[in-house]
Sequence to fold (201 residues):
Amino acid sequence: MSKVTRLPGKPKTTEVRRQYQKGDLIRALAEGLLNQEIVGDIEQALHDLLFIGGEEDVLVVKAMLIDLLHALPEPPELIEGIAINPDLPEGFDQCDNADRPPSHMAWWGKPYIVTERGLIEYYDEAVRRLSGLNIEMTYTRQEWDDRQAESRKGWLQAYPDGVRYDVRCLDGGAWDRPTGWGMVGTLEEAIHIAKNGPSWN
Fold:
């Protein structure tokens, strides 16, 4: 009988649900070990496999890793090795660097790009958002719409395609958030910054 501990609540994998590439299971294992809720289960399973496991244990651990892979978010879109709009861990943008968990530290020194579109916020949406913060709207609908139109005009002057590419990196430049390396109007410029560092370096 297998001694390997399976992940709690994970059904045994009976079929391949998507095509795997070389390295996918290693990625699942590496990312899973950063998850404090399941790291103990993974470590125990691998310990049992390495030291007391048999053929059955190999199959169980393989199924466990496949289940783990399916539980992970899809890897971010990569362009020339740079992540575009990655799914970052909870609290990533506001956290004292000294208190960051392993899931945050996995991004240390890895620049990424976030796209911003400068979309207009309509009056009713703004009222609901401010109300949720217990703030009263002080503009009339017409005043708000005029301000938004002016803001959008300025945005398009700076970013004619309507998209701003923000390059960020968790590198210690700020104590509680990723460092902004630059905001540019084209993806090519953003990739250049991500590969070569900010202009002040």
